[in-house]
Each structure stands twice: as structure tokens, then as C-alpha cells.
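Appendix C: a fully annotated inverse folding record. The material below is reproduced so that readers can follow the format used throughout the book. The structure is listed first as C-alpha cells, followed by the designed sequence.
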């Protein structure tokens, strides 16, 4: 006796159509298109997670540079001076200090300046 696949194929179609809810037009109603765009959306989501990291790093560097210039130094000199001084602080924290606690950020800038001058 053969096994009929109607139940499983229906289940598979429903899975993709449920996932494609909210897509425009036929993309949310037609199985073939829904499946194609579901897969494509996964590709976009994967790439987007990588791009988000790049964008945040750019934002942090921009904020650090703006704060460093207000403190009388450059981004490059600040990062280089901190590395030579052995200060292990990441760009996310530096950017947060530049925005929310400028006095502490200024202390880091002075440390970097004095380290570069002593070198």
C-alpha cells in the first residue's frame, strides 16, 4: 500500500506561508514566491547582522574622534597613546564616555597625550 503525501506537503506549504505573512502582494499568498522570498529574507537577515556591527563601530569611532578633538587631540593619537600606555578599553566604552562623561574621557585623552610625549 502506498503512502500519500498530502498531509506533509500541506504542512510544508503552511510553514512557508505563515513565515511570509506581511510580505507584499503575491509574496505572502503564493507558495513558490513565499518560499523564495523567505529564503532571501534569511540571507538579508544574516548580512544585516554583520552590517550592524560595522555601523556601530563607525558610529563609535565618529563619537570618539569628535570628543578627542574637543579635548585637543586626534582619534589616531588617542588610540595609539592608550595602547602604548597599556590601557585596555574598547571603542564602545570610549564612545559612551565621550558622550555621557566627558571629564573622564578627557582624562583618558590626557593620559594618551602624556604617553605619546614621553615616548
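Designed amino acids, in order:
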Amino acid at each position: 500500500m502506498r503512502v500519500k503525501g498530502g498531509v506533509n506537503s500541506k504542512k510544508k506549504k503552511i510553514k512557508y506561508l505563515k513565515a511570509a505573512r506581511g510580505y507584499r502582494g503575491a509574496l505572502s499568498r503564493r507558495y513558490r514566491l513565499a518560499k523564495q522570498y523567505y529564503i532571501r529574507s534569511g540571507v538579508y537577515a544574516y548580512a544585516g547582522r554583520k552590517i550592524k556591527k560595522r555601523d556601530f563601530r563607525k558610529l563609535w569611532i565618529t563619537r570618539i574622534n569628535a570628543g578627542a578633538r574637543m579635548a585637543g587631540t586626534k582619534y589616531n593619537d588617542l588610540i595609539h597613546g592608550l595602547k602604548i600606555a597599556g590601557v585596555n578599553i574598547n571603542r564602545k566604552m570610549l564612545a559612551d564616555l565621550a558622550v555621557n562623561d566627558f571629564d573622564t574621557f578627557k582624562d583618558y585623552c590626557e593620559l594618551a597625550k602624556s604617553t605619546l610625549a614621553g615616548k
